[in-house]
Structures are given as structure tokens and as C-alpha cells.
What does this fold into?
Amino acid sequence: MAEHVDKIKTELERLREQVRRHDYLYYVKGEPEISDYEYDRLYRRLVELEEKHPELVTPDSPTQRVGGAPAEGFAEVRHEPPMLSLDNAYAEDEVREWDERVRKGLGADGAAYVCEAKIDGVAIALEYDDGVLARGSTRGDGFTGDDITANLKTIHDVPLRLNEAPPGRLEVRGEAYMTREGLAELNRRREAAGQPLFANPRNATAGTLKLLDPREVARRPLHAWLYYVITEEADIPTQAEALEHLARWGFSVNPNRRRCADLDEVFRFYREVEAARADLPYNIDGLVLKVDDLAAHGELGTTAKAPRWAIAYKFKAERATTTVNSIEWSVGRAGTITPVANLEPVLLGGTTVKRAGLFNPERVAELDVRAGDTVNVEKAGDIIPYIVEVEYHLRPKGSKPTPIPQKCPVCGTPLVKEEGVVGLFCRNWDCPVQARGRLGLWGSRGAMDIEGLGEKVAAVLYDKLGVRDPGDLYFIKPGSIARLEGFGELSEKNLLASIERSKGRGLTRVLFGLGIPNVGFETAALIAGHFGSSDRLMAAGKEELEGIKGIGKVVARSVVEFFARAEVREIINKLKRAGVKLEEERLAEPTGPWAGLTFVITGTLPSMSREEAHRAVEARGGKAAESVSAKTSYLVAGEKPGSKLAKAEKLGVKIVSAKEFDKMLKKAGP
Ligand code: IVH
It folds into this structure.
């Protein structure tokens, strides 16, 4: 038997060598030595052997290029005209100079301007055919962006169908954004899920629009303001009227706008909006001034980067000067060490600021910020103000550099740096802050939803009753909580009852509640749905996890490493003994005419977006995959197909045209 396995191993190695060499000759050198037919035979033999002996598949096998490839991403969209940026002005003088250039360019004495709030978000473009949203995209580099139609469709400010007889072909542009409160709520969810927080609404918006799963996008609080119209079929003479049209068609148009007849009016409006800025629920960083007369836009033209008919008149960043009282190091639930500066309280943008973020130890060292220093803090749209600069010349004599901790400020464990990651981490599983944090997460609403078990109570149970992990919660002795300060018989009864009720929540919430790094609720649901039970999950390897649609290498590794820990296995044992449900109904096997078939789409299809094609396949029970493998049933080749076509040809996968695909869809029924 051993001899037999050795023989297979040798053959596999030989096949891999050959395939690698021919891949190189074909793809890199462009000088194939064998025919495609001969290559196919080698490749298929390799796939066949590996399928028979999955335990012998190595990560560097040429077949793994295909199977493990990450989701490919979005189709490209060309922008015509390009989506330009704006030149900036920071002071009245600069605005006056721009106004002079405009008037000179137009040979006019004066020009009226439309002033609009400059939203701090992410630029988007929306295309409508006969009033129906056909495509939405990101700005990208201005010339080419990503087709994110499915994501943009989730935003309620983006009408799917327009009101009031719109032009046949219409493109509108604007800004996707998040409110500050929306971001705070999103960050609360992310914190509970142990995911990194977004520093400001713009980052959160950009990060969300790039997601490949529109269902997750739909859960995030995105909005959009639209401000720009491109069409040849309507006579719109001014920007002010363009905005009115947008509103009538059904778009959201920012109300902070005004047509100003001269610069004095512009400056007055600027001051008004700047004063109101802190009260707006979303961030703006200035005004955009636009020549109202649209015919004048054509006359003035653009530079390579920005239109000459518009300028961004930026607000000054909100900034204040104060002193640092101390620098404190805190430990997060996931073990991240974060420096925070305690400040002499100072008024900034309507609130009193007492603390400023310093991000990570690297930043502290780079700024060389010390207790006693005079610093400038800014709140440039970010949630927590941060220290922009240190007034080194005001530094008190004898001040010492801030020591970077070597040990966890809570448990004293030596801190570690991790390959390729900024920051320092406490990797002690028993570190009290982390353990208390995990208990709080377990009780949270998205996890086991244990009423009464918030962070504070979690800390009390940890400190006073020796509850060390979620498993211990189910073995708390009756009577012990009632004796604690601040509790009584009734509160104990309620808390124990909600702990008892939590036993039936199921595997998704258990996985989420355990605080596995990089595993939020959605990912937990995917994993639970795939494996159905904690036993099956714990027996699985990285490969099986990576094979779940929507789960990548980082998450797969995180999960495997997490369950490899003795502490985690111990928790699972306790949960089992307590009778906590560690199962979940598995996702139903798809049914339909295409059940068991896998489709890969390449290139653009004339009749639908790639997302729509994927959904059409899935609606018929088929599987839509991103990369071609020997298991692919059909490759649908649209216009400008990519390298997948060659791969499919090589593997002998059946290739169908967009037209044939349409016919197949019709035949399979709705
Ligand atoms: S007009 C050619 N109007 O600011 C038209 N832009 O810093 C250029 N922005 O790329 C855009 N609010 O993403 C315009 N009311 C507004 C805007 C706005 C925000 C963004 C836009 C632009 C960026 C330039």
C-alpha cells in the first residue's frame, strides 16, 4: 500500500513538473513545445489523479491556480467625458483669482455661480436608458471605473426608474456617502464582530462600494447626493436647472446649495454653510463653486485634471491647540494595543475634546509625542480627533520620550509584532481585558442575545465569579449572582433565564459570539450553513473553508487557527455539556433545471450585467463561479473575453456565446 502511494506521488510530481514547464513555455515565453491536445492530456491526468487522492494535492500544484483564485471583481466602465477632479481654493483671494480667470475666459464682466455643499464621499456615475437604471460605476482613475451596479442599486437615493419623462439616454454623477451616525452604527457592529473599524465615513463608503457581495452592501447605511447631468436630449441651460431636473427625476439633491449672483454672495453663503457644518448629519469639506451657465462650461473647457468652470472652496480643518497630560495604552478585545493621548480639555468643532487618537505605537515613535507637549489636534471628518503636530519648540525642559510598552499594560505578557501588520499585540488568551471583552461579545444582541449580559456585567462575572469564558456562563451556581453588589434575587433569576434561553440560538450566533478574528455575522452564517455542526467544522481543513463561496484565505486561516487552540476546544466542550445548540440547518441543496451545473461568465454580455447573469444561473439552480476549472460545465463568452476563454479551451470546457446563453436561459424557464 505504502509503495502504491509512493508511486502515485512520484507520478503526480512528474505531471506537475511537466505542466509547470509547459505553462511557462506557453504563457511566459510564448513558445509552446507541445500541442494543446498533448497539454490537455497531461493536465487532465493531473486533475484526475488529484481528484482521486485529494490528500496528495499540494498548494503549489498548477491545478490550485484555478480553484483557489479570489473572486475576480468588477467589469470595467469607461467614462465619457472623464470624471475629473476639482482644483482647490483655501482662501477668498484664491477664489477671486479663479473668478477673474473665469470672467476673462468668457469675456464677461461677471458670472453667476451655483454653490453646492462639497460632500466628503466617493464619486459615482449612474447611467439610465429610457428612465431605467442600466449601470452604475465608481470613478476609478477618472477614465475607467468599476461596474458596481448591483451595489449602487442597494442605495435608496438611487432611483431604479425615473419620474417625469426623462431623456432616453441620461448619465448623472454624484457622491455616495454615509452619515456620521450611520458610520457609528456600522462601527458598533464591526466592533462587536471583532472587525477593524473605519476611521471616517469616506473610508467606510469606499470600502463598502468595493464589496463583491451586494447583500452586505445593502446592510450598510449608504446614501447618495447627485449633482451633475449629462444628456444630449434635454435642453438644460444652467446648473441650477440641472439640479432642479435631478430632483424632479427622483434623485436626492443636496439642499445646501445657492445660486449666487456675485462673489460677495458666494462668501456670505460660504460662511453660512461653514457655521451650519457641525450640525449636518454628514461630513462636508467645503463648497463647490460652479459657473451657472452651462454653455460657458464648454467655452472654458477643462485642464487634464479639473474643469475650469468649477472650484472647490475648502473649509479650514477644525483644529485646536492644547497640551498632552499623559499617553495611555489600551488593549482591545482582539489584543490590539492602542495609544491614546489624554488632553487638557479643549473646545473643537462644537464638542469638548479630552482624548486624541494616536493610532499605533509606530505613530507615537514617529511623532515623538510626549506628556507635557503642546499639540495641535484636528477633526477632519474623522470620529476621534487626532494629533496632527507637536509644537516641539514649546516642549518643557527635561521631557523624556514616551516609552513604547514591551508588555501588555493589563496582564504583563510580552507584546508581539506580527509579520506585515502595523502595531503591537497581546497574544495572551487569558488576558483579562480580552476575556471580559469576549464574554461581552457572547452576550451581545447579534451573538447569543443574553439580556442583561453587557460589558459591565460581563466584567463583574469575570472578576467576582471566576467566569472565564462563555462556557462558564452555563455553569454559574444559582444564588451566587444574587449575592453580588448591585444584584438581587430577581436580577439573578432574569439573567440566568436569559442565559438558559440562549442555548438554542444555533451555530451561526455561536460562531459569531466566539469572536473569531475576521469573522463577522455574515461569515459566521456562511460557515455554519456549510458545515451544519461545530464537529464538522472543527474537523475541516483550510481548503474546505476556502472552497465556500464568500470566504477567502485570510478568514479560512483565522478559523482554522482559532479552533486549533486548546482553550477554544475546551469552551466548545463546556458548551456541549451545557446543552448549547452547536448545529445549524445546512443550506439546502439547490434545485432547478441547472442543479449540478457550474457556469463561468467572461467578457461583457450585451443583454445583462455579470451580476444579473450570475443571479439568472443561480435562480435556475446552477452555480456561478469566478474561475474556470475542470469542473466547469459551461463557459459563457461575452464580448472581449479574458484569459478564462483560453483556459476553458485548454480544459475542454464547453464554450457558449452570449446568444446561446440567452437561448439556454429561455429554455430552462424563469
Ligand atoms: S463637481 C467635473 N460637485 O469632490 C465635475 N464634486 O475634490 C467635478 N464632490 O471628484 C465634480 N461634492 O467626487 C462636484 N457638489 C459637488 C461635489 C463634488 C463632492 C467631490 C467629487 C469630486 C471631488 C473633488
